[in-house]
UniProtKB/TrEMBL annotation:
Keyword Ribosomal protein: no
UniProt key word Iron-sulfur: no
Superkingdom, natural source: Bacteria
Keywords: TPR repeat
TPR repeats by residue range: 12-45
Biological source species: Salinicoccus bachuensis
Lineage per the UniProt record: Bacteria, Bacillati, Bacillota, Bacilli, Bacillales
Protein name (database record): Tetratricopeptide repeat protein
Cleaved signal peptide residues: none
């Protein structure tokens, strides 16, 4: 018997309706999958998105739902409908303060929606001073959205968002602190210093400004001022959870892990400020004070907010830090300047690259020759240098071709400098690096053909390089 197959396009609407049916049948996990599928197929459909977020929250995944909604809010250029969706989410999450204030923001944008009456009945409030409540809603939602952007490394966007709120609110202490923090992390130190100096003149006990100024002095290398401010942070007992969160994060960044853990772990226990930033800091702090399983737990929880490669985990970062320390001893302490240059190159290739930040190797680097310090500036600060740039290009060409042995790399550094001193035109760096290897066979059979292939050059250019190298 022939059966006619009817093609069926399972689009977003199909999965959404399936989700509604499964919700009615109280099959929440199955409904969640259907709503997620609908949302994946049409991410601009706010009905799909909101139902998916609401069901996530009902299943105890409220923080994840909030993260998804705020990201979508930003992608939709702050569509006011999201104030309503977030207000409803916070009702599910049993967070009346957020639910009410996001709701007030929605009413300000959609005064004819009738949601103001619903809010008054739901929260049994009678709004007397509408202007003040509206300002508090702008203030609260502004801080909340700024923090979300900032914690997800979208700092320019965070500043852009701040510029959209009324200037009178932007001038309040909390918002000036946020501007200073953003300027600091964008390396706009003068701007940050000016803001923080003013804040601390007004209130010397402002923990946020103290934290940010400590970070600023750390970044700008003002050691004495940094130590003075760090002592203040270490001895002061923050007054509230917000201060604990801020100071704990700063101390974590400054590698004061034990004190950071003391401040941040209670916030996690009471589920306050649970975010990518908190979990990231706790993963690093717990690792460094010996709570290794706990560190992995925090790292895994963090992935629900933002996927981060394991290379950046505290245990991989620790391996990278140790690798840098080993390279420092073996290469940077050597009397041979070419060994030191090679050591800097090898340190540059340690991943994650930012493992060098705050590392004790900088003390050794400070004692190196000016030429070697220039190479460091080239590697880590983007300084444009012709001579060292060409040497580096040769090392990179060798690495890509699979020649990473110390003797090969040192042979190139030595050959390069000899060529440079003899004023040889170094146009095709790959060909010169290949020629160096051809003259340093060391028992290997390295043919011209293999070098032409490995270094993406031509036989003519290789032969020309060989002639130049032979003459030095």
């Amino acid at each position: 018997m022939n059966r006619k197959v009817i093609p069926f396009d399972q689009n977003g609407e199909f999965h959404f309706n399936q989700g509604l049916k499964k919700t009615e049948q109280n099959k929440k996990q199955a409904a969640l999958k259907s709503f997620h599928k609908a949302f994946e197929l049409d991410q601009n459909n706010l009905a799909y998105l909101s139902q998916y977020a609401y069901l996530l929250a009902e299943n105890g995944r409220g923080a994840e739902a909030e993260h998804i909604l705020i990201n979508a809010f930003i992608q939709h250029q702050y569509d006011a409908e999201f104030y309503f969706i977030l207000s409803q989410l916070y009702i599910i999450m049993n967070d009346p303060n957020k639910a009410f204030l996001f709701g007030v923001q929605y009413v300000q944008h959609e005064p004819d929606s009738g949601y103001d009456e619903e809010l008054e009945q739901m929260f049994e409030v009678s709004i007397q001073d509408e202007d003040e409540v509206e300002r508090e809603a702008i203030r609260f939602t502004g801080q909340h959205l700024f923090q979300h952007l900032f914690m997800n490394a979208r700092i320019e966007e965070a500043l852009d968002f701040l510029s959209t709120i009324p200037e009178s609110i932007q001038e309040e202490r909390e918002f000036r602190n946020q501007k200073a923090m953003a300027a600091l992390f964008l390396n706009r130190y003068e701007e940050a210093h000016e803001l923080l100096e003013q804040l601390l003149q007004e209130d010397r006990t402002d923990m946020h400004a103290l934290s940010h100024m400590t970070l600023l002095y750390y970044h700008t290398g003002e050691e004495e001022k940094y130590r003075t401010f760090l002592k203040k942070l270490e001895v002061v007992q923050p007054l509230d959870d917000d201060d604990r969160f801020k100071v704990g994060l700063v101390l974590n960044f400054l590698q004061q892990y034990e004190r950071s853990y003391e401040l941040l772990f209670p916030l996690f226990k009471k589920q306050a400020f649970v975010s990518f930033q908190l979990l990231h800091a706790l993963s690093h702090a717990s690792y460094h004070i010996g709570h290794l399983e706990e560190s992995q737990m925090f790292w895994e929880r963090m992935q629900t907010f933002h996927q981060v490669n394991e290379l950046y985990s505290p245990w991989k970062r620790h391996e990278a830090t140790q690798r840098i320390a080993d390279l420092e001893v073996f290469y940077l302490k050597d009397d041979d300047p070419y060994m030191r240059l090679l050591g800097l190159y090898k340190i540059y290739n340690v991943v994650p690259r930012d493992a060098i930040l705050g590392h004790e190797v900088w003390e050794t680097i400070e004692s190196l020759e000016d030429y070697e310090k220039l190479y460091i500036s080239f590697l880590f600060q983007g300084l444009k240098l012709v001579r060292l740039g060409r040497m580096h290009k040769g090392l990179e060409a060798m690495r890509r071709a699979g020649y990473e042995e110390e003797e090969d790399q040192l042979a190139w550094i030595e050959t390069f400098h000899a060529l440079y001193e003899n004023k040889v035109e170094l146009e095709d760096i790959g060909a010169f690096a290949a020629a160096t290897l051809y003259f340093h066979q060391r028992g290997r059979r390295i043919t011209k053909k293999s070098l032409v292939d490995d270094f993406d050059t031509s036989l003519y250019r290789l032969n020309k390089a060989l002639d130049k190298v032979k003459q030095i």
